[in-house]
């Protein structure tokens, strides 16, 4: 199999998995947890000691949903993956770092994996199966 085809296929699978996970996390923050009321996302950010918890909660949910969709589509992919890496690093610091390693304890396992996936896309790009590639033909 052609090395380039294999590389692009793996990048596509990585983008799809990462994007769906990010969208699901953002959706959960807004629609399942809600943004207010005792157990809402803003309250979780406030309890964790995050600065400007309301702004940070909405920014995080927005980046997760929009950035995840952009990663899936391969549109402005490196910027979207970079933004996802940044919000995940903030989440890593405020919510996961003190809980040990394993995800079952809300530890750093999943955010660490997400950050590494995001950085892989930042370094290697979206691949040929992306809107970035399709639009580059018109530039």
Quote the average pLDDT: 93
The amount of helix comes to over 70%
Q: Major beta sheet, specifics?
A: none
Q: Please state the overall shape, judged from the principal axes of the Cα atoms.
A: elongated
Order of helices and strands: HHHHHH
Q: Work out the strand percent.
A: under 5%
CA(first)-CA(last) distance: 30 Å
Please report the total strand number as a whole number: 0
> Helix count, per DSSP?
6
Q: Cα-atom Rg, whole angstroms?
A: 16 Å
- List low-confidence stretches: none
Observed structural traits:
transmembrane helix; mainly alpha; 6 helices; 139 residues
Overview of the molecule:
The protein is mainly α. Helix content is 72%, strand content 0%. It is built from six helices and no strands. α1 packs antiparallel against α3 and α3 crosses α4. It comes from Corynebacterium suicordis DSM 45110. Keywords: Cell membrane, Membrane, Transmembrane, Transmembrane helix. Belongs to the DoxX family. It is found in: Cell membrane. It is a multi-pass membrane protein.
């Amino acid at each position: 199999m052609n090395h380039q085809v294999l590389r692009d296929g793996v990048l596509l699978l990585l983008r799809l998995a990462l994007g769906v996970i990010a969208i699901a996390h953002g959706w959960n923050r807004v629609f399942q947890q809600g943004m207010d009321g005792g157990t809402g996302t803003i309250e979780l950010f406030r309890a964790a000691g995050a600065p400007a918890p309301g702004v940070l909660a909405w920014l995080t949910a927005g980046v997760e949903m929009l950035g995840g969709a952009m990663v899936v589509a391969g549109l402005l992919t490196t910027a979207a993956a970079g933004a996802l890496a940044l919000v995940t690093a903030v989440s890593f610091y405020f919510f996961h770092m003190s809980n040990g390693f394993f995800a079952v304890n809300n530890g750093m396992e999943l955010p660490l994996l997400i950050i590494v996936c995001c950085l892989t896309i930042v370094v290697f790009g979206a691949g040929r199966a992306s809107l970035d590639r399709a639009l580059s033909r018109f530039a």
